[in-house]
Amino acid sequence: MGSPVAESLSYEVLESAVRGEGAALRWRTRLQPAGGAGDKVFPPTYKDAKYAEERRRIEGRDEECVLLDSVASQANRMELALLRALRAGEIELPTIDVAFPEAVELSDLGIVSVLEAPHRVFDAILRDSLAADGRPFRYSAQAADLNAASSRNATSLLELCPSALVFGAWDSTGPRGGLGAKFARALVSEVVAVGARTGVSVGSRIDPLGIQKLKDADRIFQHPDREEGWTMDPGTALKDPKGKPVLNKKEGKPSEINHGNVTPDVAAHGGVTFDYALQTAVLSLPALRRLEFRTAAGHPPEAQVAARTWLAALAVAAVALARRDGFDFRSRCALVPEGPTSLELIDADSGAARPFVADVATARKLLGEATTRARQAGFVLEPQPLVLRPSPKFVTLLVKSREAAQEDTGGGE
After folding, report:
1. Which residues are 34's β-sheet partners?
2. How confident is the model at residue 410 (pLDDT cuts 50, 70, 90)?
3. Per-residue pLDDT tens digits for 140-166
4. Which has the higher per-residue pLDDT, 216 or 314?
5. Cα 163 to Cα 95: distance, rounded to the nearest angstrom
6. CB atoms near residue 52 (< 10 Å)
7. How far apart (Å, rounded) are the C-alpha atoms in residues 31 and 238?
8. Kind and range of the H or E run holding 269
9. Which of 11, 188, 382, 401 has the fewest CB within 10 Å, making it most exposed?
10. Which of 36, 39, 37, 42 is nearest to 268 (CA)?
11. d(Cα 15, Cα 307) in Å, to the nearest integer?
């Protein structure tokens, strides 16, 4: 017997799964380097420039694995994929924007979406911004219920920042401090290299001017004029409180102002090769079923199902849109699929996996229908973003921070 033919994921199937028939939605995608099998890719580095390496049990074998993209990073990529689709008019989604002033000092910031904020709706960027009524966001009319949000009544999050319910959030800086509500991730995804071997990296630089190491008596000093930058004349150099000339950087060497050769070197943790990479994404349907919502009519059961199904559809769209954006994680870490993504609905009773298709077109249609059903159930899902503006003190903080960064010639604190 052949494999079952995958059909497009419909709202009816998703709703039945959310009601209780399903345990999870699962996506699995095998990947190879864009340069072809065996090409080297570079994982993220952590403390002491180390990779996240571990042995995992995969298909009955112990495999050497290296993390290529973490759960948190994958969530951020999916949120940005949703944001791009939202701004392109492909989907509707309640969201919040912080519009920064077009003053010269902050003109590059433009608009920052809640989908870009590290702590989502509970981020300090929103906390220190003002709503249309001039009040801090957390105390404005639009966010009146946010301070009391919990899994027993998550309506305010559903209507302001649904991504917080899909990807998780903790209200650690709100009025309740560390006792603020926590919402666990319902959707998790990561990418690991399987059968990995760590390589080495090499580095060098040849200076076409042939600038060499200076004599011990010669040093490069800081110049008091920022435009000049540096000087070799101790008489014109910036002086410390004791009147001594201040060295440029640490030792006053040419290499510290990017002149001279860099000695060829070989270093560990220079990328990895592997048999294949695997992206695994799982949407927990019990996690969605633990969330409760309130409408003007109270807690009608059908409204609960509509809200949870809408969140599930949002998760499906996030995975599909991120896949469309590709798997280019960082410099020299671009991957491509070996084949189509496998989406499976896991039966809550038997654990059997039923295959479905959920490409971008299917996901957009699914999210559109789920949005309509949720609105019909009484939820207010605004198609336009709620726009905030940074408070004057927040603007001052940003400007002063940038001034300090410009004046700092020692690399910061």
Report:
1. none
2. very low
3. 998 988 988 999 999 999 999 999 999
4. 314
5. 9
6. 14
7. 55
8. strand 262-273
9. 401
10. 42
11. 10
d(CA 406, CA 413): 13
Q: Tell me the C-alpha distance between 293 and 282, whole Å.
A: 23
Residue type, 156: S
| Cα first-last separation, the chain | 66
Instruction: Count other C-beta atoms under 10 Å from residue 400's C-beta.
Output: 11
Which two three-digit tokens encode residue 332?
A: 């020299």
Q: Enumerate residues 6+ apart whose C-beta is below 8 A from 379.
A: 155, 158, 159, 293, 295, 303, 306, 307, 310
pLDDT at residue 405, as a whole number: 79
Question: Does residue 179 sit in the same domain as residue 276?
Answer: yes
Helix (H) or strand (E) holding 78: helix 71-87
- Sign for the CA dihedral angle at 87, 144, 308, 298 comes to negative
Q: What residues does 24 pair with on adjacent strands?
A: 284, 346
Whole-number Cα distances in Å, 169 to 57, 365, 379: 30, 27, 21
What digits encode the pLDDT tens for the residues 42-78? 999 999 889 999 999 999 999 999 999 999 999 999 9
Residue 256 lies in a domain: yes
Domain span including residue 279: 7-197+270-395
Q: What is the domain count for the chain?
A: 2
User: In this structure, are residues 113 and 99 in contact, taking their beta carbons and an 8 Å threshold?
Assistant: no
Q: Which are the contacts of 120, defined by CB distance < 8 A and separation ≥ 6?
A: 114, 161, 163, 164, 167, 169
User: Do the Cβ atoms of 195 and 344 come closer than 8 Å?
Assistant: no
Statement to judge: residues 41 and 99 lie in one domain: yes
Residue 337 belongs to a domain: yes
Domain presence at residue 404: no
Do β-strands 111-113 and 96-99 pair in parallel, antiparallel, or remain unpaired? antiparallel
Tokens in use for 41?
């890719």
For the CA atoms of 310, 381, 369, 120, the dihedral, rounded to the nearest 10 degrees, stands at -40
230 lies in the same domain as 340: no
Residues 251 and 277 reside in one and the same domain: no
Residue 302 has pLDDT above 60, yes or no: yes
Kindly state the average pLDDT of the residues 14-27.
Answer: 98
Same domain as 29, residue 159: yes
Determine, yes or no, domain membership for 175: yes
Exposure string for 350-365, b = 16+ CB within 10 A, e = fewer: eeebbebbbebebbbb
Say yes or no: 221 and 297 in one domain: no
- Are residues 282 and 150 both part of a single domain? yes
Both tokens of 234, joined, read 């101790």
Contact 191, 278 (CB under 8 A): yes
